[in-house]
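Human: You know discrete backbone vocabularies at least as well as I do. Show me how you would write down a chain together with its backbone fold. No explanation is needed for now; the record alone will do.

Assistant:
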Amino acid sequence: MTRKMKNSRLGWAGMIPKEWICNKAKFHVRINNGSDPKAEGDVPVYGSGNKSFRTCGEYKLGPAVLLGRKGSISNPRYIEGKFWNVDTAFDASVISNDLLPKYYYYLAQNFDYARYVTQTTLPSMTQTDYRNMKIPVPPVEEQQNIIAFIDKISTNIDATISLHQQIIEKLEEYRKSVITQAVTKGLNPNVEMAMTGNNRLPIIPKEWKLIRLPHIVDTRHPYALGDGDHGIIKTDMYKNHGIPYIRVQNLGWGTPLSIDNVVYISENDNMKIVNSTLQPNDVLFAKTGATIGKTAIVPETIPMSNTTSHVGKITVSPRYNPKYIFYVLSSEYGYHQMWIYASQKATRPELSLDDIKNFVLPIPKERQEQNNIVQYLDNVCEKILESIAQHKVIIEKLQEYKQSLIYNAVTGKIDCRTEGGEVQ
């Protein structure tokens, strides 16, 4: 039987079952501030992000719903057991018998945050926003049915998403192993190998050499080995067009340079940091913090760009294929070599230019062999990356489908009183 529906007048909720009521949240939940903990312990501490980022000795007791106050405001989290939240997140506790905490959590995934958000440096919400937000409230028994339905479909969909994520991880591992094999042993499985006397790479093809990085740079370039701007460019100087300003987030793990979120600077500002100007085929690598190991190569489609001090750059001699050097740095061998030096720093991991000069790279003597390896890796990696992209699309579609089911369930468009749910 078709269920009678009515206009909720809530905007985001649309039509809801006729017998449901709509109330301001303040009649059902208490919105509490977070704060910095003062004691050490093993209780997980949350902010507005998706994960616990530390532990403490103080605690609040769930069930509760964590709501974003500043930053990632549209990612509520359901908590059972002991927890603590800092001031970037509110914790919402149910105070009425007419609302179940987990139903409120599923509702919160669908709130129209854009209507309330205050845009300062970071998006933010207030306690008043959450308290005065009207929510649909079905009978408690139906809330239980809705929760059971969403829990079940979420478990099934999440399991499928996890499977695709595992496949992506395996493909990423395979891609890195293919790169490492090619740049340390070559393409001929029967090639004669020779000892190098180097503990980090004891054996390479006989016709190859281990070459220190300073010997493969273009000596005609005054700044062939260096890094980017040291603080002259500020965020308020970013433009929507102009000279691309490459940041660490534009680098990848052996993948093409990402320009989706690239920022720009003016030609005048670029002249202030002209020494770190990049050109096509410059090899880039991250040199600070947890991003060490990320790499990129400047494509021919970007004739001029610049970068930050967190990014190192190599202008490669014409005797060598710059894409081959990129692949060496993107290999397991290149990654571990970076971290051997970076992990020796007293404060945070960092690569100095002196560290980089100590890098030793396995390189075929013949440029043609370098070219052959690059062509092989370009072809193989392209296919692997295409497969990874396909799995990411599937994951995105599954997440959209899951969110659609949650929305339709919490607004009564799927009648969860029936086994399996009935679309209204």
Q: What stands out?
A: The chain has three domains: 21-137, 140-190+365-424, 208-364.
